[in-house]
C-alpha cells in the first residue's frame, strides 16, 4: 500500500514493492504472480479488515436497526479504512476492477455485502421497496463521501462523514418507530 501511496498503481513496480518490503522481487512474483495478484491479495486483506471492523462494531451496538446501521457506517469510516495509503489502494482497486474479472468479483462481493446488510436493517423498519431505496441511498452516500474524501487534498474528516450519513439515516427512519 505504501508503494501505491507514493507512486500510484501505474508507476508501482514489483521491484519498488520488493524494496519497500525488504524482500526479493522473485518472492513477490512467486507468491502473487505479479502486481495484479498482489493488489488482489492486499484488497482481500483490506476487505477482511473492513468486514471484521463492521462485525465488531455491530456486536457492540444495540440490537435496534438504527444502532446496527450506525455501526455499519462507523465501520466504513474506521480510521483503518481512511488512511491515505488504504484510500489510494482502494482507488487503484476500483479503477482496476473495471477491467479485471477477479477484482471485479471482489468489488461485487463488497458492494453486495454492504447493500445486503443495510437492506436487512432498513427492512426491519420500512416496507420492502422503501428499504431497498434507503439501502441504495445510504450505500451511495457512504461510497460518495468516502470517494470525495479520497480525492481531496486534505485528510478525510471521518467524523463529519459519519454525521452526514447519520443525518441521512435518521431522515429515512424519521417516520418509523425505529429512530430510538
Low-confidence stretches: none
What's the Cα radius of gyration? 18 Å
The gross shape turns out to be elongated
Q: Main sheet?
A: none
Give the N-to-C terminal Cα separation: 40 Å
CATH topology: Tetracycline Repressor, domain 2
- Count, helices: 9
Order of helices and strands: HHHHHHHHH
Q: Would you report the number of β strands?
A: 0
* Helix content percent band: over 70%
Portion of residues in beta strands equals: under 5%
Write down the overall mean pLDDT: 86
CATH architecture: Orthogonal Bundle
CATH class: Mainly Alpha
Structural class estimated from helices and strands: mainly alpha
Q: What is the count of distinct domains?
A: 1
Keywords: DNA-binding, Repressor, Transcription, Transcription regulation
GO molecular function: DNA-binding transcription factor activity; transcription cis-regulatory region binding
DNA-binding region: 13-32
Domain HTH tetR-type: 1-50
Map the helices and strands.
Elements: H1 2-11, H2 14-21, H3 25-32, H4 35-60, H5 65-76, H6 84-97, H7 101-123, H8 128-151, H9 158-173
Structure characterization notes:
The chain is an all-alpha fold and 180 residues long. It has nine helices and no strands. The protein has a single domain, classed as Orthogonal Bundle (Tetracycline Repressor, domain 2). InterPro entries: BetI_C, DNA-bd_HTH_TetR-type_CS, Homeodomain-like_sf, HTH-type_TetR-like_transc_reg, HTH_TetR, Tet_transcr_reg_TetR-rel_C_sf, Tscrpt_rep_BetI. Pfam families: TetR_C_6, TetR_N. It comes from Modicisalibacter ilicicola DSM 19980. Keywords: DNA-binding, Repressor, Transcription, Transcription regulation.
